[in-house]
Write a structure and sequence with these properties.
The protein is mainly alpha-helical. Helices cover 59% and strands 5% of the residues. The chain contains 14 helices and four strands. The protein has helices at 3-49, 58-64, 66-105, 108-113, 121-130, 138-162, 167-175, 188-216, 236-241, 294-299, 310-315, 319-326, 328-336, 354-359, and strands at residues 221-227, 245-247, 253-254, 274-279. Strands 3-2-1-4 form a four-stranded antiparallel sheet. A hairpin with a 5-residue loop joins strand 2 and strand 3 (253-254). Helix 1 (3-49) runs antiparallel to helix 3 and helix 5 packs across helix 8 (188-216).
Length: 364
């Protein structure tokens, strides 16, 4: 395999691992939010009980919700601090990964003449927190979700009083109902928002770490290639850009007219795309030396890997890796031909459960 083929393969592996890491961060922060919600709901119930239905005013509501707002702000401040700490550690790990990857992929003969330039964890984190994603800085996202949450709570209470609803009905609209495991309350929006922000923050951090490393090692890199996870959840934005190349410095389109849009991982909320560097050929590196081995010349030929869909990439992985990504039952189904990989999702891009698959006549 050439250096560029190995870099593409590693980029897809890393994108999957990054998504799994992101899900772990989501579970951690949602658990933190769930732990605080019991106290917040208790304070909210108490506030409603102190609000006479016949003397409702917005000013009185604001006064009664002060304790709720303080608790809400406090939990999101903890969430924001925890997310920042997680991204600091992740950014450092991602920078170290890029160094190790290039050290393993670029032939030693090339690195002896063009050694890798390192980027520090501090450099990466400074870039992560100073560059916005989806319109806000990392430090601003937690407080923005907290503010949105309080606006929805205030509006739900106001509508409830105008509609002569009971306190229980108002709380059910806010919190949700036990019958639906509280998934029908308006604050479920905040959990979805938190998930989107965390996933996008992780992608933003990974993209920033890659970008800082690429800029430091521009002498080795000719271009940057967009790599999308091609499945039923992939947006049209990323579908159209998969495999497209951009200049390594200013990210100008090469051979097409699709703009960078902040790059893979930042193009939209929950963007799962990544990027891979396209290394310069050994001739373009300016070190056309006769003593280079044939293997080094073949590895650094500068060729861009052929188009590769995610499904094709998955098919050529080991059974262990397939099971890690799909789960053992789905992995066996794919390998046996019982169910193609792209039919394991519903129309909304969610995994079909094993029970749903069995209902369709597929035997795990």
């Amino acid at each position: 395999m050439t250096a560029n083929e190995r870099l593409l393969d590693a980029a897809i592996h890393r994108a999957i691992d990054t998504h799994q890491y992101s899900e772990g961060v989501v579970r951690r922060l949602v658990s933190m939010l769930n732990g605080a919600d019991a106290d917040i709901f208790a304070a909210l119930t108490s506030a409603l009980e102190r609000m006479p239905a016949d003397s409702f005013t917005v000013a009185r509501l604001e006064a009664l919700l002060q304790s709720v707002r303080a608790m809400n702000d406090a939990v999101y401040a903890r969430i924001g601090g925890d997310l920042a700490a997680q991204m600091r550690a992740f950014g450092a790990a991602e920078a170290a990964f890029q160094v190790a990857l290039f050290g393993a992929v670029i032939p030693a003969e090339v690195l002896a003449r063009l050694p890798l330039m390192m980027v520090t964890a501090e450099q990466v984190y400074a870039a992560v927190v100073s560059r916005p994603f989806q319109g806000r800085l990392l430090s601003e996202w937690a407080s923005s979700i907290a503010d949105d949450r309080m606006r929805r709570i205030r509006e739900a209470i106001r509508v409830g009083y105008v509609s002569n609803e009971t306190n229980s009905q108002i709380m059910a609209r806010i919190r949700g109902t036990r019958a639906l495991r509280y998934s029908d309350g308006i604050i479920e929006i905040d959990r979805r928002s938190l998930r989107s922000v965390v996933n996008t923050a992780v992608s933003h951090t990974a993209a920033t770490a890659r970008g800082e490393f690429y800029r430091a090692n521009m002498k080795l890199i000719a271009a940057e290639q967009w790599v999308s996870t091609l499945d039923s959840r992939t947006t049209h934005i990323c579908q159209a850009r998969d495999g497209k190349r951009y200049t390594a410095d200013a990210h100008k389109p090469i051979g097409h007219d699709l703009p960078w849009l902040g790059g893979p991982g930042r193009a939209h909320f929950n963007c799962r795309s990544t990027s891979v560097p396209v290394t310069r050929s050994w001739k373009d590196l300016g070190i056309d030396m006769p003593e280079f081995s044939p293997a080094t010349r073949a590895s650094m030929d500068g060729q861009v890997p052929a188009d590769l869909t995610y499904g094709e990439w998955l098919q050529r992985q080991s059974a262990a890796r397939q099971d890690e990504i799909l789960g053992p039952a789905r992995g066996r189904m794919m390998r046996s031909g019982a169910l193609p990989w792209d039919q394991m999702f519903d129309r909304r891009g969610r995994w079909l459960t094993l029970a749903q698959l069995q209902a369709r006549g597929v035997t795990p």
